[in-house]
Amino acid sequence: MSAAPLLEVTGLSKSFTARGGLFAGSRNSITVLEEIGFSVYPGESLGIVGGSGSGKTTLGRSILQLIRPGHGQVLYKGRDLCALSEGEMRGQRRFVQLIFQDPYASLNPQMTVGRAILEAMQVHGVGADDRDRKKQILALLERVDLSAEHFGRYPHQFSGGQRQRIVIARTMALGPELVICDESVSALDVSVQAQVLNLLNDLKDEYGLTYLFISHDLNVVRYFCDRIMVLDKGRIAEIGPSPTVYADPQAEATKRLLAAIPGRSV
Ligand SMILES: Nc1ncnc2c1ncn2[C@@H]1O[C@H](COP(=O)(O)OP(=O)(O)OP(=O)(O)O)[C@@H](O)[C@H]1O
Ligand SMILES: [Mg+2]
Predict the structure, then answer these.
(1) Beta carbons of 97 and 176 less than 8 angstroms apart
(2) Which of 31-45, 64-78, 91-105, 206-220 has the lowest mean pLDDT?
(3) Which residue of 23, 31, 67, 209 shows the fewest CB atoms closer than 10 Å?
(4) What is the pLDDT of residues 97-108, one digit of tens each?
């Protein structure tokens, strides 16, 4: 890890204001992320694990500026994304992308998959013209083990695993550098999960990608990621190489996650 980090998060905090509550009009502030700091290096897969409500999704969305964090820096190639305006951030979106759990929710049901990918490329100025874009899309559909004839079909005509491949194709069409996967395979059957994970792994090498891989399942992350970061109540409980974290957990939060894996005794 001698290279400069691709992503460097420092002192990142986020609170939400919960309105209502016991007394009408009262406002309680809940801290969801507290002083988060870590680096991700080019070509690395960093797993982010933690129990439900530990702050994984909030962290992913804060990095992407889909939620503006309260404090801290998100340095992407040395540039603080938190300091960018919405307009400037839009220019960065093709390079830092999110793939999340429900591929159906991220695809417009009224738009053919080809059209959806084409529009995303147009918006981000990818490709010379529509003919060139279409050529790229057909190649990408083949690459994710779909086929050219799927270009004109609608999302509901696909299985869950196929839909996730369409979302992956659309992501890749924009030429990302950092991809944040938030429970991207959790909704799929175990065998389909393995296929999609293999695809993501192959694409990582082909496109030179870096992944932040969010999951509540330490077993998935263990095989997929180089390093694991464990979140607990909005703080980093532990971070280290996957085999070390798995074999010799230090934090109580990590031990709890390991104990939850069926068939494994801690
Ligand atoms: N918009 C919001 N307003 C108020 N509280 C929120 C908001 N979004 C998230 N939270 C709270 O922040 C905490 C962390 O939520 P988050 O979704 O980041 O957890 P998570 O680790 O992704 O959980 P899961 O494994 O269930 O997906 C939770 O307590 C949640 O209720
Ligand atoms: Mg989540």
Answers:
(1) yes
(2) 91-105
(3) 23
(4) 999 888 778 899
129 CA to centre of ligand 2 in angstroms: 37
Distance (angstroms) between ligand 1 centre and the Cα of 32 equals 7
Query: Are the CB atoms for 7 and 178 separated by under 8 Å?
Result: yes
* Spatial distance between the Cα atoms of 223 and 197, rounded to a whole number of angstroms: 10
Residue with the two structure tokens 């996967």: 181
Task: Report the distance separating Cα 49 and Cα 223, nearest Å.
Answer: 13
Residue 17 alpha carbon, nearest atom of ligand 1: 4
> Exposed (0-12), middle (13-18) or buried (19+): which is 129, by Cβ within 10 Å?
exposed
The residue among 227, 259, 262 whose CA lies nearest residue 245 is: 227
Mean of the per-residue pLDDT values of the chain: 92
